[in-house]
Amino acid sequence: MQLPIYFFGDTHFKFQKSSQEDKKIEKFSQFLKTISKENNKGSLFIMGDLFDYYFEYKNKTPEYYKEIFVSLNDIRKKGFDIYFIAGNHDYWIGNHLKSHVNDSFLNDTTTEINNKKFYITHGDGILSWDKSYRLLRCILRSKLFVTLFSLLPEKMALKIAKKISHERKDSHYLDQERINRVHNELDSFAQQKIDEGFNYVIMGHYHHSYQKTLDSGELILLGECNERNYNYAVFNGDKLEIKNF
């Protein structure tokens, strides 16, 4: 994996056009152009939920995300490697997405660079009270469900995805009490990984930034990336920094 490594995610690009989406796509393009100007090579690690909904039909690529793939192609041609870990919104990746990245992961993954060990996860399904979600996730990720969903006409599938997305638009709102509960659970999860020898535990999913030093390691929770701000982490081979673009 080439240095420096940029970690970001939760852009939640939507398939329906709007002025907000245009601004978000432009911000994404600016971000990639900026980091590729600063470095002639490096790596992108996309932490999941790049898309608000993603599904590849057999022998048909999703046209509604064409601009995103163009931007990824451009930075890859400049010498960057791209890695993608699936989120809860874009788990159903196929050959088209895989052709635009160096490697993709459907589950948590690990890597080691310069004697620093990274545990990388999107972050969903960790919380102890997410039992019903973990069950739903198993169903949605099953081969049977994916096969049945692929039989739906694309227009109908997009309508379903749009409705679900609208109903979940406030699902990441957290009051302070719930934030504290989430952080306590994530701290415990990260501490277990640090006890196993990892230096960094990096995740997204919760749409807010949080950083905690735990013994000899760190928990890095990245916020969302939208048309106003990109919360990301960069590892230069020596240290990891949290930044905003």
Short description:
This protein has 245 residues and is an alpha/beta fold. Helix content is 36%, strand content 21%. The strands form two sheets. It has a six-stranded mixed beta sheet with strand order 4-3-2-1-10-11, covered by helices on one side.
Describe this structure in words.
β2, α2 and β3 form a beta-alpha-beta unit. The protein is globular and about 50 Å long. The longest helix has 20 residues. The model has no long low-confidence stretch (mean pLDDT 91). α1 runs parallel beside α2. It has a six-stranded mixed beta sheet, with helices on one face. A five-stranded mixed beta sheet has the order 5-6-7-9-8, covered by helices on one side. It is built from seven helices and eleven strands. The protein is an alpha/beta fold. It has a single domain, classed as Metallo-dependent phosphatases (Purple Acid Phosphatase, chain A, domain 2, 4-Layer Sandwich).
Please name the defining characteristics of this protein:
single chain, 245 residues, alpha/beta, Purple Acid Phosphatase, chain A, domain 2, five-stranded mixed sheet, 11 strands, 21% strand
Question: What is the average of the pLDDT values?
Answer: 91
Tell me which oligomeric state these chains represent. Answer: single chain
Rg (C-alpha, Å): 18 Å
Structural class: alpha/beta
Report the order of strands and helices: EHEHEHEEEHHHHEEEEE
How many extended strands?
Answer: 11
Number of helices: 7
How many discrete structural domains? Answer: 1
Which regions have little confidence, pLDDT < 50, spanning 5+ residues? none
In one word, what is the shape?
globular
Q: What is the terminal separation in angstroms?
A: 23 Å
**Largest sheet entry:** 6 strands, mixed
- Percent helix range: 25-40%
Quick one: CATH superfamily? Metallo-dependent phosphatases
CATH architecture assignment name? 4-Layer Sandwich
Q: What is the percentage of strand-forming residues?
A: 15-25%
